[in-house]
Design brief:
With 522 residues, this protein is mainly alpha-helical. Helix content is 75%, strand content 1%. The protein is globular, with a radius of gyration of 23 Å.
């Protein structure tokens, strides 16, 4: 049966409801229900088939089930790593080296890079650890919250191992399944997309450029002038968010902070992942290259190996050092796994919606419309990036945007430009979604950044938006437009960073010291 325009109503409804209600899970389920109603002719059958067919079969698929389990294990493991004090040890070591405002900012940035495995942990650990140092060095709370926010999600989404990986692999796999490429090497595709994550890369670069040049612009400049000249880390009347509700991530007071409790588990996971991909993909066989092995490997199985071994090593280390009792260690693992439960529900519903869209012929209908309109594939990555930015800002969730947009964008990209257009378009969704984490006051990461830094939440959003918009504009003009034309991403990255440096030097005003501020205002 040809459903025609009806085929696009479920994903459109998901987008509209998610933006209007900011309830992604409910919006996705209603969209799934609507699609199932079309397929089964009545809403009662549609409701039950939404659950026992589309959701159940999506979650029960061995590949998808492995992704769900891996995500829970990695979240639990990293929760235990945090509880053991390993990440805090490295963060405190960096903080001790900061003697100037410039050093304090760079240290906060490096902390965010090191705590790459989870954006929530990065916001809270980096924020709470750096705050006493940045307060002493007269760095405004707005600046601190910006630095940790613009480092946390961008690095977590492109890190080789993080709590984001399972989710991203899930939506990548669903997007490629929509074009008949169910056996696509999703982890290799993930790696190939990293150079095209222009917004994430430029957001990270802008933080360090502002820190090294000691320049700012927009409302952030006013905040830094206030902190440097008056010693007021917060504006008068500001209401900083409290970090009292984040003790679950904090080690006990008597826990010794040892750097190897962070480094060893993370290295075990990373090394096991790459060795596993090589071995599972046949890399030990004659004539099989490293790239071929990574492409042939079942990444879901390998990630299960890596996360499980990482969990075991972390548990043994914690028990041998007597950092926490066995029961508390198990509880921490479970609590860490619980932290990603909402994301897993979003992922299952996104898979179910994609399943239904395939039954309705949504991708075929969209491709037909695009071909009739005559849209050029060269501008598709830019359009998808802008759409993802807008949706993420309105919805306040990057994962919801990834889950909804990716399975629709991939078929259109494939129809317009074939395989060469797939990676830039995929990256446009994944990095455009990060924009919502940086501009939306509803974003959980934005809230946690304000919490970790002890900043007024609205002040954090207000001062960060000009910087996020700067990164998005540079990503659009110097990233996704050239990418659509086939320009290698390395050239876009180099040119984009140069543009950011020149822009900051021209537009930014120095905040190096009170004396320099006085001179710049004359």
């Amino acid at each position: 049966m040809d459903y025609g325009i009806l085929s696009i109503l479920p994903p459109i409804l998901a987008i509209i409801l998610a933006i209007a209600t900011r309830q992604v899970i409910i919006s996705l389920f209603i969209a799934v229900w609507l699609g199932a109603t079309f397929l089964h002719a009545n809403p009662i059958d549609g409701f039950f088939r939404s659950i026992d067919v589309y959701m159940l079969e999506s979650a029960a698929d061995p590949w998808y089930a492995a992704i769900l389990i891996f995500t829970m294990i990695i979240a639990g493991t990293l929760g235990l790593v945090t509880k053991a004090g390993g990440a805090h040890a490295i963060a405190e070591a960096l903080a001790r080296k900061a003697k100037t405002a410039r050093g304090g900012m760079v240290s906060a940035w490096v902390m965010g890079l090191i705590i790459f495995f989870d954006d929530y942990a990065s916001c809270l650990i980096a924020g709470n650890t750096a705050r006493p140092v940045t307060d002493k060095l007269k760095i405004s709370r707005e600046k601190l919250s910006y630095m940790i926010d613009s480092t946390a999600a961008p690095i977590a989404t492109i890190a080789l191992i993080s709590t984001w990986i399972g989710f991203e692999l899930g939506v990548i796999g669903e997007g490629y399944a929509a074009i008949g490429m169910e056996e696509a090497p999703v982890y290799l595709i993930f790696l190939q997309s990293i150079p095209y994550r222009f917004y994430s890369i430029f957001a990270l670069a802008l933080v360090v450029i502002l820190s090294l040049t000691m320049k700012d612009y927009g409302p952030m400049y006013d905040a830094e002038v206030r902190a440097r000249k008056e010693g007021k880390l917060l504006r008068d009347g500001a209401v900083p968010l409290s970090a009292t509700d984040t003790e679950i991530l904090q080690p006990a007071e008597n826990t010794p902070f040892r750097w190897y409790n962070f480094v060893i588990p993370v290295l075990v996971i990373i090394v096991t992942t790459f060795v596993g991909l090589y071995v599972e993909g046949g890399g030990t066989e004659p004539g099989v290259s490293l790239t071929d092995a990574f492409g042939n490997a079942d990444s879901s199985v390998v990630l299960l190996w890596a996360s499980s071994l990482g969990a075991l090593v972390t548990l043994v280390m914690v028990l041998v050092q007597k950092l926490v009792p066995l029961q508390e260690a198990i509880d921490t693992l479970i609590n860490g796994a619980k932290s990603v439960f909402p994301a897993l529900i979003i992922l299952v519903l996104a898979w179910a919606l994609s399943y239904i869209s395939g039954e309705l012929g949504t991708a075929d209908y969209l491709v037909g419309v695009v071909e009739r309109v005559g849209l050029s594939g060269a501008i598709l990555p830019l359009l998808i990036f802008i759409l993802s930015c807008f949706m993420a800002f309105a919805m306040g969730t990057s994962w919801g945007v990834m889950g909804i947009v990716t399975p629709l964008a991939i078929p259109v990209a494939f129809a317009l430009g074939g395989e060469p257009l797939l990676i830039p378009t995929l990256a446009a969704v994944l990095t455009g979604a990060i924009f919502g984490d940086h501009c939306s006051p509803l974003s959980d990461t934005t809230i946690l950044s304000s919490t970790g830094a002890g900043a007024d939440h609205i002040d954090h959003v207000r001062t960060q938006i000009p910087y996020a918009v700067t990164g998005a504009v540079v990503a659009s003009i110097f990233g996704f437009i050239p990418a659509g034309l086939g320009v290698p991403p390395i050239f876009s990255i180099i040119v984009g960073i140069i543009v950011l440096i020149v822009f900051v030097r021209i537009v930014g005003k120095t905040t190096a010291s009170a004396e320099a501020i006085d001179a710049s205002m004359k």
